[in-house]
Amino acid sequence: MRLVESRATLTITYVVLGIGLFTALFPIVLLVLNSLKSAQEIVQNPLALPQVIRFDNFARAWKDARFSTTFWNSAMLTALTIILVCSTGSAAAFVLARKKIKAWKVVTFYLLATTTAPIQLFLFPLYFGFAKLGLINNVFAVSLVYTAIYSPFAIMLLRTYFLAVPKEIEEAAIIDGASSWQVFTRVMLPIVSPGILTVALIIGLYSWNEFLIATTFLQRQDKLTAVVSFFLLSGQYSSDWGEIMAAALIIVLPIVVLFVFLQRRFIEGMAGGSVKG
């Protein structure tokens, strides 16, 4: 009886996993297929296989979206945001994890509020402030906005990693003569590196795909990000859907490749961050 139940449970598990896998992969497969078709074929039947493989879609998408420039802008913006969030977030998380703060509930409420608050509330004041300071079309300035938005999440996640590290390790380093800065940089950071990698991947994904702030503060043609330039490929009255699909695949591919290579560390990092809150 137990054997029958275990087999039934295993079958149901595989069915559910199969449905989940199909749901996750179907849009990607459809994107790849349509990126190799002409616009006419996509309109006629987006689910069919391409009659003639159109690799020229990728060449036209790269040229028309100016990906040689916009990819660099996105990469620089993403890298700056990751560096700023991971450096400031890890330092703040270490202090919050190791110091007894009486107003911790207030700090927690503040971090949760800033995480859930919509950016639209601050968009117009930020824009006018940036315009007054001459920071429009400044990639570093936009990375500061991203840092302010994503840091609360990073701090709350990294704090759980620092809490999971036994205090005896820190005390032993202090006894050996290490300063607080050395304890943080040489002892704690290597231990919580899986969490920092997890934060870097998540923040990198958010920054790479972000549209609203990028299109508001980066308006010059040579400062556009890849996502914004992709959006501009769509015309008002007509669109080359083959080219658009190819451009979408070009944008998605770096993130997918990066996640595939780092998925084990990412999963380990997410699991480790849920050990202690």
TrEMBL record:
UniProt domain ABC transmembrane type-1: residue ranges: 71-262
Subcellular locations according to the entry: Cell membrane
PANTHER family recorded: ABC TRANSPORTER PERMEASE PROTEIN MG189-RELATED-RELATED, LACTOSE TRANSPORT SYSTEM PERMEASE PROTEIN LACG
Organism: Kaistia soli DSM 19436
Keywords tagged on the record: Cell membrane, Membrane, Transmembrane, Transmembrane helix, Transport
GO cellular component: plasma membrane
Cross-referenced InterPro entries: MetI-like, MetI-like_sf
Family classification: Belongs to the binding-protein-dependent transport system permease family.
Chief location category: membrane
GO biological process terms held by the UniProt record: transmembrane transport
Domain of life: Bacteria
Membrane topology of this protein: Multi-pass membrane protein
UniProt xrefs under Pfam families: BPD_transp_1
Transmembrane segments: 12-33, 75-97, 109-128, 140-162, 183-208, 244-262
Protein name per the record: Carbohydrate ABC transporter membrane protein 2, CUT1 family (TC 3.A.1.1.-)
